[in-house]
Specification:
- There is one protein chain.
- The protein is globular.
- It is α/β, with parallel strands linked by helices.
- Helix content is 20%, strand content 37%.
- It has one domain (5-369).
- The protein has helices spanning 5-16, 27-40, 56-59, 125-129, 137-145, 371-379, 384-400, 406-422, and strands spanning 84-89, 92-94, 107-109, 151-154, 162-167, 174-183, 188-194, 200-209, 214-221, 228-237, 242-250, 254-263, 269-279, 283-292, 298-308, 312-321, 328-338, 344-353, 358-367.
- The longest helix has 17 residues, at 384-400.
- The strands form two sheets. It has a ten-stranded mixed beta sheet with strand order 2-1-5-7-9-11-13-15-17-19, covered by helices on one side. Strands 3-4-6-8-10-12-14-16-18 form a nine-stranded mixed beta sheet.
Length: 425
């Protein structure tokens, strides 16, 4: 089918304002990504996987303005954790604000490193695999255009978490970052991400997990409310590998998080979860695609959204079980708590199974605060707003439980309590 001319015109307008990197060790991957992109064009509202989320502000030639946020003295998330900080300011790496990655015991390469190294076999590879069967044009754009990002390789358990911090200092910044992470057999890495990034933010993270590798990812989004972001995580898991990702989103006018996970080794485990809270002009989209291609693998998708004053939540999640992927255990749940009649939750759960010995389930619900539970708390002297907050936090608990580090989980809970207090809940 021919690509609509409007999508191609939008792509050329977008490319015209970008300075595409040339040559270097990523040159071939960039050229291939650009060819993929020109074959599909930028996403449009009529595309099946964009029908709930209008991509116009993510695909326009220039980014809209996003006001800078005053944190009011609130400490940034993860400040109480002993970690190694790698800081980007409006999408540009700042060595002055960053720590020495050697303190975490990881190998961090620059984009100017020698032409032959492990990243050549990873940059753009998982993104390209993730284009089938669903096209992901903004990820291809990222691979073609990103000039910044981290290249991290871990050969044993990292001594400290690595914290990617994204600072937003220009109201019109338009940042594109591409990270490559390789975790060797038996190695273990925790990545923390926080900060608004830019007025418009496009990120790709490609994660290759060898047999027995472990990867923990905790991310916080939405501090600067007017920012728009599209993020992508592409991961491939070897035998007995563990992948766990959790995202907290509080505010942000438009956020779309895509996760494309491929379990290629027996007994691998992939969990992806998220908790989102939105008030007013807020659209939050989680789009997940998990492929089971080996035996006895487990996947979990757990997403909870709390919405008020016309906020919109979207969930599109799929589990694909390939032939021969016997003993698969796939679980998917997406739920929303609507705090008024103006908010919306749009869900599209999917299962596609080609093996006969599997356990797969999906569920999606949407509703208001349980009046019986609210009455129970009020009857025992709990004030109305406090009772509502307790019920909201209880609703989000299943997603937060996916975080293994209890200190981080408690920090997330406290931030949610603060958000609820600020937004009159």
């Amino acid at each position: 089918m021919a690509v609509a001319q409007a999508k191609l015109d939008a792509l050329e307008a977008r490319l015209a304002v970008l300075s595409l990197p040339e040559g270097g060790w990523t040159g071939t991957a960039r050229d291939e990504a650009l060819a993929r992109l020109r074959a599909m064009g930028l996403p449009g509202k009529r595309d099946e996987y964009w029908r709930y989320t209008n991509p116009e502000s993510l695909t326009s030639a220039t980014a809209g303005k996003a006001a800078l946020f005053d944190a009011g003295g609130e400490a940034p998330l993860f400040d109480g954790i002993d970690r190694v900080k790698l800081v980007f300011v409006d999408g540009v790496f700042s060595a002055d604000l960053s720590d020495d990655p050697a303190a975490a015991g990881v190998e961090l390469l620059s984009r100017q490193s020698a032409d032959i190294h492990w990243a050549q076999g990873l940059y753009g590879v998982l993104e390209a695999r993730g284009q089938v069967p669903v096209a992901r044009p903004l990820a291809a754009l990222n691979t073609a255009a990103a000039a910044e990002g981290v290249l991290i390789r871990v050969t044993e358990k990292a001594a400290k978490p690595v914290n990617l911090i994204y600072l937003h200092q220009s109201e019109t910044s338009d940042a594109i970052l591409h990270h490559c992470i390789k975790i060797e057999s038996g190695a273990d890495l925790t990545i923390l991400e926080n900060g608004p990034g830019a007025a418009r933010f496009n990120t790709v993270m490609e994660v290759e997990l060898a047999d027995g590798a472990r990867f923990h990812h905790i991310r916080a989004q939405g501090r600067d409310h007017e920012c728009r972001a599209v993020t992508h995580i592409f991961a491939r898991l070897g035998a007995e590998a563990l992948f766990k990702s959790f995202t907290l989103t509080a505010n942000g006018v438009l956020t779309r998080n895509e996760a494309v996970l491929e379990l290629t080794g027996d007994d691998a485990m992939a969990h992806v979860a998220g908790a989102a809270v939105g008030d007013g002009d807020f659209l939050h989209d989680d789009t997940v695609f998990v492929t089971h291609a080996a035996e006895r693998c487990e996947s979990r998708q757990v997403f909870k959204k709390v919405l008020k004053n016309g906020a919109v939540g979207v969930f599109q999640g799929k589990i694909l079980v390939k032939p021969g992927a016997q003993k698969t255990d796939g679980y998917q749940i997406s739920q929303s708590l609507l705090l008024d009649e103006d908010s919306q939750f749009l869900a599209k759960p999917e299962l596609e199974i080609y093996a006969d010995d599997v356990k797969c389930s999906h569920g999606s619900t949407s509703g208001a605060i349980d009046e019986t539970a609210l009455y129970y708390l009020r009857s025992r002297g709990v004030p109305l707003r406090q009772a509502q907050s307790l019920l909201v936090l209880a609703f989000l608990a299943e997603a937060i439980q996916e975080i293994e580090d209890e200190a981080i989980a408690e920090d997330i809970r406290s931030r949610l309590e603060g958000w609820l207090a600020r937004h009159g809940q």
